[in-house]
């Protein structure tokens, strides 16, 4: 049984793509199955090893080290000593320096070109650092968080997530893939019944449904921002089944095209039919000439929004991967509150701030 509440996050420990790991082994001429141990020389440190040791280079590069983010300047500085070509060595030193031209070069050649450690080794043929030092320099591979897209009342034995697989072409023509999303994509259980293991833990959050089910909720979540709201709606449906009085459940969702990326389309239609979802407002941003986003729909329904907030004591939730969206939505609330509450702009800002401190306006936003 998985212990979680709707609105919690799950942290997933991913693994790096084996082809990237193999290519690093090949380019450095390393037998990846060699066993090694990396020991912390700082005696004050309470950690004897930066990651579980002894281990193989393959395990370290697959599970413990970040090999996909563009390396930071301190890593380039340390690597420079191993470039036998003076031009490459100079370029690495320059990028690691605080001089404006060095910073600009680092920004364009590493950050904007999204060069990971393998791309740097490929594009600097004289740079062949010892693998031990590379393992020491690379940062730890981080867990990725996901907003749980299920209710434990309905799915006590499973945790659902909703994520977009990250994949993009870099300026150098390479195809970069997001570590966790592509790894998760390969974890679909096999037809022969073999399970896939995904190491994870649940992180409690403050993003919670109101204590009283009769309190209305306004949920605003474009794209994968819909994730926690699927859990919320499932939970409200379950509460209704238990005979509880459930308040208005209002969703503002957004995607690009109705026929392309409308997530949970069938589920949402069913929830609406069953009367669990009182309002389903969907903004299709690219289905017409002018872009339509969730905040435009909020404005369109401003009178109803104000009624739910002012008379119904509704709780407002905003979730998604765009910081701009959260800001635009908040500005829209200021406008609605100012207009219908007959308040000045500062008073409206204060009103929304109070909603936040009372736990009636909650954010779950990442970028
Ligand atoms: C609290 C919290 C909740 C979250 N909930 C969700 C959720 O419910 N669903 C969800 O999908 N994600 C969610 N995320 C984001 C998630 O944790 C991961 O960041 C995301 O899935 C990408 O992980 P990845 O390992 O696949 O990609 P990574 O390997 O981490 O690569 C992603 C990085 O690639 C770069 N990148 C991506 N696209 C491009 C591009 N076109 N051009 C250049 N660079 C690019 C960016 O720097 C980006 O940070 C959440 C994050 C937090 C902090």
UniProtKB/TrEMBL annotation:
<dbReference type="InterPro" id="IPR001709">
    <property type="entry name" value="Flavoprot_Pyr_Nucl_cyt_Rdtase"/>
</dbReference>
<dbReference type="GO" id="GO:0005829">
    <property type="term" value="C:cytosol"/>
</dbReference>
<dbReference type="GO" id="GO:0003958">
    <property type="term" value="F:NADPH-hemoprotein reductase activity"/>
</dbReference>
<dbReference type="InterPro" id="IPR023173">
    <property type="entry name" value="NADPH_Cyt_P450_Rdtase_alpha"/>
</dbReference>
<keyword id="KW-0288">FMN</keyword>
<dbReference type="Pfam" id="PF00175">
    <property type="entry name" value="NAD_binding_1"/>
</dbReference>
<dbReference type="Pfam" id="PF00667">
    <property type="entry name" value="FAD_binding_1"/>
</dbReference>
<dbReference type="InterPro" id="IPR001433">
    <property type="entry name" value="OxRdtase_FAD/NAD-bd"/>
</dbReference>
<dbReference type="GO" id="GO:0009725">
    <property type="term" value="P:response to hormone"/>
</dbReference>
<keyword id="KW-0521">NADP</keyword>
<dbReference type="InterPro" id="IPR039261">
    <property type="entry name" value="FNR_nucleotide-bd"/>
</dbReference>
<dbReference type="InterPro" id="IPR017938">
    <property type="entry name" value="Riboflavin_synthase-like_b-brl"/>
</dbReference>
<dbReference type="InterPro" id="IPR017927">
    <property type="entry name" value="FAD-bd_FR_type"/>
</dbReference>
<dbReference type="InterPro" id="IPR003097">
    <property type="entry name" value="CysJ-like_FAD-binding"/>
</dbReference>
<keyword id="KW-0285">Flavoprotein</keyword>
<keyword id="KW-0560">Oxidoreductase</keyword>
<dbReference type="GO" id="GO:0050660">
    <property type="term" value="F:flavin adenine dinucleotide binding"/>
</dbReference>
<feature type="domain" description="FAD-binding FR-type">
    <location>
        <begin position="1"/>
        <end position="210"/>
    </location>
</feature>
<keyword id="KW-0274">FAD</keyword>
<dbReference type="GO" id="GO:0010181">
    <property type="term" value="F:FMN binding"/>
</dbReference>
<protein>
    <recommendedName>
        <fullName>NADPH--hemoprotein reductase</fullName>
        <ecNumber>1.6.2.4</ecNumber>
    </recommendedName>
</protein>
